[in-house]
Request: fold
Amino acid sequence: MTTSPQSSGRVFSGAQPSGNMHLGNYLGAFKNWARLQDSYEALYCVVDMHAITVWQDPVELQKQTREAAAAYMASGVDPSRSILYNQSKVAGHAELAWIFNCIARLGWLNRMTQFKDKAGKNREKASVGLYIYPNLMAADILLYKATHVPVGQDQKQHLELTRDIAQKFNSDYSAEVFPMTEPVIMGEGARVMSLRDGNKKMSKSDPSDMSRINLNDNTDTLAAKIRKARTDAEPMPSDASGLEGRAEAANLVGIYAALTDQSRDSVCAEHEGQGFAEFKKSLTDVVTAKLAPITEEMARLQKEPDYIDSVLADGAERASALAEPVLAEVKRAVGYL
Ligand code: TYM
Reply:
């Protein structure tokens, strides 16, 4: 679903500090976060509570939390306009998630494809946290009565669940507490695929580092990854319909389109007839031009951990102030004394 920005409403989004931030996170989320802060009040959260639904080394988690905050800022999130903080600093997320654990139905959670993917065959060994992960996500959003949530395509099902939870809460307690949140899934970058397999999404947890372009990759590394990205022997078609059944080629065209803010059709028209070895050179130029300043700014910010910590602390204070009245309203509706 695509939603065009309006001047009222509140935006919430987040990313897990569970590994390297990558081009998929940038194109599916961060790039749009920076845009939306011009039209909306926005909260951007480093979801460290979601991250521990699978094992995280504590020292690494701290490092990755700062790295995620640096990635948000380097991608254009301005902490003086938007609220940037980490989830575990605002206790309301956990409090509301508990209430939602009592609202959401087992059947709803059993349908979540991300749990099935992440738990794999070893379901019995998955943490309970991983199973109820979507309830915490609904709590993140609804704790602020957020109206718009900019995410990549992979989060769509979780946002549908958020609406189901909001609706059931409002109906069970005969109270219009929560809004129906709109997903904001924008443009050609909403689903960036692995460079090794065009049918798998680009992901932090893919064991192959060659499958993704990390925001902290240097220019040589990212050029090598694009050069080695899987493609096929066919040339560039005249329009995007010629990319059907060519998942890897379609992905590279999609990345180019998203980075240059044009459609796949116009990228095809521009490069019609070109072989992909040649197209990859143009793609490398485009990726480098966009990512090099972000990589550089992330590295600069990460040399200032005290500054990052102060941004997160200030954000947590501002987020808590917004959460407090909503949580009070929820507790009243539920009947807590
Ligand atoms: P996470 O950490 O997996 O990803 C962060 C954001 O990046 C997007 N994304 C992608 N977009 C396009 N192509 C890809 N290959 C790709 N990979 C990731 C994701 O869609 C997401 O927008 N559950 C969420 C975090 C979360 C959240 C929230 C998001 C927790 N609470 C509340 C929105 C609102 C997640 O794991 O994102």
The pocket of tryptophanyl-5'AMP is lined by residues 12-16, 24-25, 27-29, 47, 50, 137, 140-141, 149, 151-152, 154-155, 190-192, 201-202 (CB under 6 Å). The beta strands are 10-15, 41-46, 83-86, 148-150, 182-184. Residues 305-334 form the longest helix (30 residues). The chain has two domains: 10-191+305-334, 209-299.
